[in-house]
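Changelog note: in this version the structure field was regenerated for every chain. One regenerated record is shown below for reference.
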Amino acid sequence: MTKRIFIAIGVSLAIMVVIYGIFGIRVALAIKKFSNMKQVTVVSDEPARAENWAPQLHAVGNLAPMRGVQLSNELAGTVTAIEVESGQEVGKGTLLVQLDDSSQRAQLQGYQAQAKLAELTLKRTQELFKKNLASQADLDTAASNLKAAKANVDATQSAVDKLAIRAPFAGRLGIRNVNLGQYLPAGTAIVNLQSLDTLYASFALPEQNLPMLHRGEKVSLTVDAYPGKVFEGEVNAVESRVDPDTHNIMVQAVIHNPQHLLRAGLFANITVTAGKAQGVVTVPKTAVDYSLYGSSLYLVQPGKDKDGKPNLTVHQIFVTPGETRGERVVIEKG
């Protein structure tokens, strides 16, 4: 019984050795076959492109409103009406918040009555003066009383107007800080109003860029809030002096914001296109290999194989890359 077991085990081992031997031979043949194959790399090529690029200046800056204000009340009073909601678009002159003006309106009616009476008195006195029935002093007094009555009307009307908080210009409201029935001391912050159609972009550039900076130069900017979206504008003003500490000069640009996407206070990446366009040679940014030993790219040239047949060859050349815009880079040398 034991002898049969040993024979079976031996036969099994022999079969396994044969199987693994055949598998090993096939693997070795496959490795030899692939090692003898040519290594082929497939690439794409593109002609270098001649373009005209105007010089660009890059900076970072902040956005500020062309018209923006924190509205507050000049006179103290109690809120009797709130006519708008937070975040609402409003036109110039829109009533935002009404403060209690009942006492001022009552005074206004009294002063208006006094002014009407003073005007009638002045007319009578003038008629009497023409008939020598009134003195010059009477005429002067009547005229003075009318002026005083009109001044009281104007002052009270001004108080009534100030108790009605209106939008000084068209724009978008922020979050209101007052509630109906609330007593507001003079100078209470009510709501922020910003005009969003156009914004200011303020940024600094080195003093050597001063000759290239002129009013009307094109400006583009991007913000992190809207990746990939470019906003356009133009230079509005250049500071009249250079900062003696940083040797930078401040520049202000007007940025168009028709969709009201931008907000005052946003951080912006700004590009100024200034100066005369110059001819450059550009290639795709991915074609340049940047390394510690220098930048290079592969140049495709026509050639011939060993049989004299025409083909294309690739040579690595070292270049000096320059400015990058989008997916293309300028080749300054090489």
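Spot check on this record: The mean pLDDT is 87. Helices lie at 2-35, 102-130, 136-162.
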